[in-house]
Amino acid sequence: MLPYKDRENETTNAALDVMANNDIYQDKPSLGIFWYDPNKKELYGVESTMADDIEYYLSPQWQKEVRTTRRLHKHIWEKQFHRGKDKRFSGDYTMKPRGRVFEFKDEGFIVFTGSWINDYPEAKDEIIYEFQLPADTKFVQDEHWDLGHGWSNEF
Q: Is residue 16 part of a domain?
């Protein structure tokens, strides 16, 4: 029996059936990007995709299989800036604490942040909760995610 009242419209019934069957996936880990607001002690601009829905990519340079969401911080920032609804999306996207969640095959989940995480260690719990990550998730600091760094500094 379906968990909702059958409707006359078959398209609506099919859509509701998909939604009901997706309930089992809600506690699965996700991969993605985020910013951290130290004033509100919360993540914002979160873009995530369930890990199981993303294929691994073999890095030819490092010979590692890794996966993460395809969205980039700079593109999300531009879109939110133009919407103008959240005033936190103003200025340079690299000047706000940010990070990315990856999964490395045979290594597990790794959250990359800048050194800003040392000033806001409470952000780790927010990230673990938001992305439904396991307790053994590693946090790695890299200058790419340091304040003021980004793609413009990489090449």
A: no
Contact between 68 and 102 under an 8 Å Cβ cutoff? The reply is yes
DSSP state of 120: -
Question: CB 76: neighbour CB atoms within 10 A?
Answer: 20
Q: Is residue 60 part of a domain?
A: yes
The model's pTM is 0.84
Span 127-139, pLDDT tens digits: 999 999 999 999 9
Fill in the amino acid letter for 77.
Answer: W
Structural domain for 44, as ranges: 28-154
Non-local (6+) Cβ contacts of 46 within 8 A are: 32, 33, 34, 130
123 DSSP assignment: H
Whether 4 is in a domain gets the answer: no
